[in-house]
User: Fold these one by one.
Assistant:
Number 1:
Amino acid sequence: MRQGFRQCMSWLHIWSGLLVGWILFAVFLTGTASYFRNEISAWMRPELQAAAPGAEPVRLAIETLQRTAPNSPSWIISPPDERGGELRVFWREPGARRFATAVLDPATGEPVRTRESLGGNFFYRFHFELHMAPLWGRWIVGFCAMMMLVAIISGIVTHRRIFADFFTFRPGKGAGRSWLDAHNALGVLALPYHLMITYTGLITLMVMYMPWGIQAAYQGDRQAFVNDVFGTAALVKRANQPAPLTPIAPLLDEATRRWGGPPGRIDVQQPGDASAVIRMTRRDAESISANPQTLTFDGLRGTLLSASGEAAAAAATRGVAYGLHLGRFASPLLRGLFFLSGLAGTAMVATGLVLWAAKHRHRHARNGRAGFGLRLVEALNLATIAGLPTAMFGFLWANRLLPLHLADRAEWEVRCFFLIWALAGLQAVLWPGLRSWAAQFGAAALLGLLLPVLNLLTTDRHLGASLPAGDWAMAGTDLVAAGLGLLLGYLAWRLVHRAPARQALRGARLARAEGA
Amino acid sequence: MSLAARIPAGWRRLRAWHWPGVLSRTIAAVLGGYALAALVATAFAAWLPASRAEAVLTGMMLSFLIYAGAVIWVFAARSAGRAWAGLLPPVLVLAALLWLTGGLA
């Protein structure tokens, strides 16, 4: 009976993984890229010079807002940080629902004009919305994440020899044996990470996926729940008595003294009014938990009104889960390890998909023509596993190559991404086979390897300048792209030159000759 | 026996399962599993002796593990009928208790 149980779990693992594998691959890869969202954003707006954090940019931002948005009921200031983050302000016109936003020059406080680009936010949002209507995208990704959780658990059960298989790699054995070993090694290698990232991913959007408890305990009043959990306070009422805002520098000093670092966000409510309140939020780089720690100051006298941040058990657990998923707390070294684990997860999904195709291809090689299911899986594999990295690098290339003042420029970058991906899909349908795999990996490799060269030709913040200046957002993006290019180039080279590939190619040609 | 040799065995087993059984299990796993997870989340929110927010959060976070466990159970059961027989009683009991205590308000 135990044998039967493991077989059931094997079946469940294969199907739960295969059916959503392509979406999972895209979610994993764009999510992995999102560990460097700030750096990618900085790379995609080369006009913005890296800024030093400090009190002066915040003071300048407030001066600018006092001049340009004096009647806004609230301002939000996001100061520059070491990870290439920009000085960004948000304000709201009276009566408007949505915030307007601008990027300011940290040296002058004046709005800067940069090329229009979604930056790293494109990958970040694609990771959980797939560039669809948010409601649809988030539910689809949530469903796939749930399937992933089931696939991981059933995979562990199937996989009795966890430690033995970790040390088993039989390259070049063909017929899916090496793919199976690679899939197992990648899965086991970063298993705690895979479990953590899948479960915490569900937790980030759980209020949407599982709202039923709020229905029961709060009669569906979601805002009351959010206020209870996060300690958010409602917007203060305007007194309609003009009054000057207190200087910001002493408040920033107070926050820095308490937290050991400057705040990550400054909210000003009812600026210029007697009711003004200034709230500072601790940087999420400073603690694992994503639960915000805040200090609230009187906006006229500058006195501390309240400090929040001690969360109860479940709220703290949620905060840590959320924080772990986003990884904003991570130091550069830990961030690098998260990135590698994310790549391992991406490769685990990819090898799983390829393994399925290899097994069925092997079976079909004996009994004739490949069925529709196999051809579909092979086309989707090629279009996703090789096509998506190509399209992602293409997105970065479009950022440098599109004319600077093109109308809807940010939208055109996204169109380029999807155009390249669609072309990869077309090639996968029209010319399936190892040559197309090699061609697409080769294209992605070239785009990655040559990205620093493109940056050299189109900006003055190339590696020769960024490395000596310690401009890590710029240099890091160039270097990581080139490194990934090397890796993809190696894959392409293996596909062209290695024996199993050639054998398979010959086998396919033979089969075609026999069929003709 | 190596893992590689077991996978085709799992595949053959699917063939032997017939598609109505697989469809029935899939419905039980996706919809029944979600119903159970949602009811457990609601039960925690309604009954856990903690503050409202804490009870709701605890139920929410556990619900995904319940969901995953339910899916595993449904596909591990010896037949689709047994899968339903294992899934429905907790769903019905929880729903009835919540309804009686006003937790489904």
Number 2:
Amino acid sequence: MAYRSTIQGIVYTFPSLATLLAKASPLRSGDVLAGLAADTYMERVAAQMALADVPLKTFLAEAVIPYEKDEVTRLIMDGHDAAAFAPVSHLTAGGLRDWLLSAEASTTTIQAISPGITPEMAAAVSKLMRNQDLIAVAKKCSVVTKFRNTIGLGGRLSTRLQPNHPTDDPKGIAASMVDGLLYGSGDAVIGINPATDDPEAVATLLYMIDELRENYQIPTQSCVLSHVTTTIGLINQGVPVDLVFQSIGGTQKTNSSFGISLSLLQEAYQAALSLNRGTIGNNVMYFETGQGNALSANAHEGIDQQTCEARAYAVAKKFNPLLVNTVVGFIGPEYLFDGKQIIRAALEDHFCAKLLGLPMGVDICYTNHAEADQDDMDNLLTLLAVAGCTFIMGVPGADDIMLNYQSTSFHDALYARNILGLRPAPEFEQWLVRQGIMDGESNLLTVAPSHRLLKNV
Amino acid sequence: MDALKPVDGNFIQKDAWGRLRQFTNARIAVGKTGTAIPLAENLLFRADHARARDAVYTALDEEPMAAALQVLLPALPVLRLKSRAETRQEYLQRPDWGRQLCDASKQLAKDAAGSNRYDVAIMVADGLSAQAVQLHAPAVLAAFLPLLAGAGFSVAPLCIARQARVAISDEVGALLNSRLSIILIGERPGLSSPHSMGIYITYNPAIGNTDESRNCISNIHPLGGLAYQEAALQAFNLVKGAFALQLTGVHLKSHHVLGG
């Protein structure tokens, strides 16, 4: 089906919903690279005008990737909740944008319609929104998940402690871990990116974090971000796995390039659930996404990178994750060229995921060949903290010495919490107070060299 | 009214665990002022970032590189090639252009090869850090080329490739009628290793090959990375294994090579 809009007598035509979504996307290098971006500024606005008029029902009738060809499309279509959709089913994409911003759309009403919103609808609405709209609506959404603590409550900002080391040296990782804990980081997860996917090396790290967590009775969870097949193998061997990690994408082809499928994720999910290691909840999965991952695997199927990204959230949602984060600036300037594009993409990802009911965090980050620096990250951090972002990364000094990119530091999280009065997850906050790391007003305390966390390192 | 007192000199809070720095190069125990990282640490970070940025934007200096390569293989010309990406901006945004030779370079490579056939084509490419290859490529090749010669492998004219990505080695290797293609290329600069070099090896170079069909040796640099001699030896072992199995990529694992 073709879509049209007219500006000052000039008719703009878009042959399909996929084309319309791509042309309506705010400019980013990845869509240009894929040959999908609008050719002119005016064509982009014309696409946005046409997209605003598309009835939401059209998104159920016209799949951007055919149902027969793609299991993510099947997941989206088969999992659609018609009853939840009913209250907004008469709206257009533009109408949904206006409704979401209205006083009518409260936290509970948005939660109620969320299962009726498809990723493509969310992507469409986000393309029509300004940054402040993305922030305002995301702020209204509430997604709470639990394992050993409670993630996503109002007035909270959690952090993943990311103590990576280029050779997975346990002492080096432990040093960064202690540094992070003493800076109040690690309530979302203590999560290590291993330098190798070797099961023995991964197991060594899992045992090490588990021992530390047990010794100090830290109410948090651990994860070594290895491939899901590696993790399933470790679960079968009885290695202490809290969360199962996997990178995911929004097309079947992207996922198969990652060596995964929905059935493999289901197997991993069941395996993690069977361990029953969560003390207060059963959210056992941790997913990472990021705009451009489909295109970089040459698996984008002619779909723009932001719509692909939103479709990945349907995959995540199926497995009730504890945490999801977009690794927004990691992929490089051929997908998101500069600070402006990275900031926009992060706000879109956070909004779409929250609207679809996911506990969304953001790895606020950039590589050294992107046109970005720590100032851009400060801007994005502040915007996301205002938007109610679930968690951010905590990397010593913002410099990941294993992955060679820059993210957010332990100090950055303290800054965001301080200026906006945000606090860590409640169980973790109480632990920090008990350990003499933080006072009851979320101020960091001075730690003596005799502190028990420093004793055995 | 009394004169204002000088502020207390101890407003920067140091961390009590500075000794943990012996275990990692991560930026731990940096202390704080308020919730912020102290300025001195911030400036060190900026200097490291600036070094990495400069590495991305510094152009390959062709003259000294060509001279160095000429000495290593005096009998053949050194070919100076360029991708389809004209500028650094284009290079960063269009990886597809960085994988293709410009028309003039295609012709140059074709003419240089003529009807000659070679075992190995070797190119030195800027990638994301021209300084990396400027610093390391001649030394690694000085160790590597004698190993090839000793084993009887024929080597095509050495090439310099500007604004190039790894996959340009497919086109160059094919145009030079070579059975195997090797590219020494500047890696994405990190704050702690802005001048790190990688080597990618592809058997049967042809346009359209993907990364699964290559073998890679990464992190080559003298400051805690892989040393030149070791890199040359690993590359040589991969070349021998590639010719023995007639392939590169995931099926040519290091144990195939080392196991003989």
